[in-house]
Inverse folding.
């Protein structure tokens, strides 16, 4: 098992698109007004987690 | 379906580009992934009165409040005032951004542009290396549109540029992550936009209070993503509101999250491709304001598209007139303010207080960052100048000379 992938809580996400803009792997996408992480591309770097202004992304922060 | 230009994104940059392209004879389609133009609002809604001269939005339904000036507060609350002291000489507006965007779209449609909502661009169509159109998703339907020019007006998380081969990913040190409450029932009577600086208040950014009249204000925060932790922007904003007796009793009627690119501009034209607005990183990196550049840049882009259609030349070389002209209009300002943003980041709260104290009795009569930036550069303590010189070479000189 690798590190857990980033996961967006769609009830908290306000679609600011910050996570999409900073993800180095182009792993986050906009879908129907929310952000979604593509597990296959995510390398668990946690940049999106730190960026989220409302704390909607979970995963591990180092 | 065939168009001269397809524009992804119906924000100000997209709609202004669409309008001026359509006015100069191009067949234009705007596609927008959201269900309604301008909704939800993701903006502080402050804009300079410069836009009066451009005549791009008509009437006054989009105006919430007319501003007499701005106040910038250092960490110890020393205040630097910018503004026309004489009444009636307002320096800017706080707007209703949804109505503003819809007005810009209305003008584009009047000029002949078509709009398709709920339509998300998902890729480019290529023949060999040549970009010939765009793939989009309309609910569950996959659509293909052919066009000679594809415009990326797709905002901070722009993908059009990325698909075409331009590096669009933002370094966390070049992104402000934001949150904002619109509060009712607050105790603010005068029409000044306020900015609060400080490492504890908003690391790498600021808190803003933009009054909309009738006891309503947008109270927001932007912090640098490289200094942020999960949920930090929202928490710091709530701390700020709790400590301000004028805002404390406010009732929130809107809460939003946002992201603003504060980077140097990127390449904005390729063969068959143009980027405008936030997608082109046309935001002032010091203030995070992007609206005026969207209008200026969008107009230039639209005019150049019109010319390209007439000449049937969609090469990077022909389209580069757009890049040359936006650089003339505001390229220097973005470069200068990017340097300044980095310099500001190195200043501790004590230095900010010192500078605010030195400037507090000066009169700045226009909301232009240029005059202010020069004065601040003059007031930097020797130690900061020295550190900056070691780290950034001759940045301060550059800032003062530009
Ligand atoms: C919290 C916050 C406060 C701000 N405050 C101010 C301020 O007070 N003053 C100021 O001048 N500026 C402010 N800004 C900056 C300003 O909002 C932006 O510069 C401006 O919105 C940029 O306009 P745009 O047209 O480039 O992009 P946007 O307005 O972001 O529009 C982009 C559009 O493209 C659509 N889109 C994206 N991808 C696709 C796709 N694949 N297919 C179809 N459509 C797509 C989006 O849904 C969106 O509607 C603020 C920004 C934020 C986040
Ligand atoms: S940063 Fe947070 S609020 Fe913004 S789009 Fe990503 S998950 Fe949603
Ligand atoms: S953890 Fe890193 S790679 Fe994964 S989605 Fe977030 S930013 Fe992208």
């Amino acid at each position: 098992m690798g590190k857990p992938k980033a996961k967006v809580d769609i009830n908290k996400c306000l679609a600011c698109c910050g996570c999409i803009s900073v993800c180095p792997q182009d792993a986050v996408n906009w879908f129907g007004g929310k952000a979604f992480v593509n597990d296959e591309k995510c390398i668990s770097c946690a940049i999106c987690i730190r960026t989220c202004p409302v704390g909607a992304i979970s995963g591990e922060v180092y | 379906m065939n168009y001269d230009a397809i524009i992804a994104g119906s924000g100000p940059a997209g709609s202004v580009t669409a309008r001026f392209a359509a006015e100069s004879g191009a067949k234009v389609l705007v596609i927008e992934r959201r269900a309604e133009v301008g909704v939800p609002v993701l903006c502080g809604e402050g804009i300079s009165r410069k836009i009066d001269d451009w005549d791009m939005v008509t009437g006054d339904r989009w105006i919430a409040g007319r501003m007499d000036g701005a106040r910038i507060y250092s960490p110890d609350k020393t205040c630097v005032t910018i503004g026309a002291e004489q009444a009636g000489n307002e320096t800017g507006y706080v707007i209703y951004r949804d109505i503003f965007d819809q007005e810009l779209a209305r003008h584009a449609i009047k000029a002949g542009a078509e709009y398709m909502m709920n339509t998300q661009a998902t890729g480019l169509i290529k023949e060999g290396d040549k970009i010939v159109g765009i793939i989009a998703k309309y609910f569950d339907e996959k659509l293909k549109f052919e066009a000679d020019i594809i415009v990326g007006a797709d905002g901070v998380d722009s993908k059009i540029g990325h698909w075409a081969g331009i590096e669009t990913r933002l370094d966390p040190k070049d992104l402000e992550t934001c949150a904002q409450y619109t509060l009712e029932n607050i105790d603010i009577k005068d029409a000044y936009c306020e900015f609060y600086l400080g490492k504890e208040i908003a690391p790498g950014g600021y808190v803003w209070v933009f009054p909309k009249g009738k006891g309503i204000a947008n109270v927001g925060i932007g912090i640098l993503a490289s200094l942020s932790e999960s949920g930090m922007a929202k928490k710091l904003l709530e701390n700020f509101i709790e400590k301000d007796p004028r805002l404390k009793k406010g009732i929130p009627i809107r809460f939003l999250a946002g992201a603003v690119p504060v980077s140097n501009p990127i390449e904005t034209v390729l063969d068959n491709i143009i980027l405008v607005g936030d997608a082109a990183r046309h935001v002032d990196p010091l203030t995070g304001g992007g609206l005026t550049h969207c209008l200026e840049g969008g107009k230039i882009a639209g005019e150049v598209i019109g010319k390209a259609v007439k000449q049937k030349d969609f090469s990077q070389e022909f389209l580069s007139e757009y890049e040359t002209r936006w650089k003339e209009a505001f390229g220097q300002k973005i470069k200068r303010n990017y340097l300044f943003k980095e310099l500001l980041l190195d200043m501790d709260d004590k230095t900010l207080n010192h500078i605010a104290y030195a400037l507090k009795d000066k009169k700045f009569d226009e909301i232009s960052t240029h005059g202010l930036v020069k004065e601040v550069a003059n007031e930097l303590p020797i130690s900061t100048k020295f550190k900056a010189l070691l780290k950034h070479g001759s940045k301060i000189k550059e800032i003062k000379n530009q």
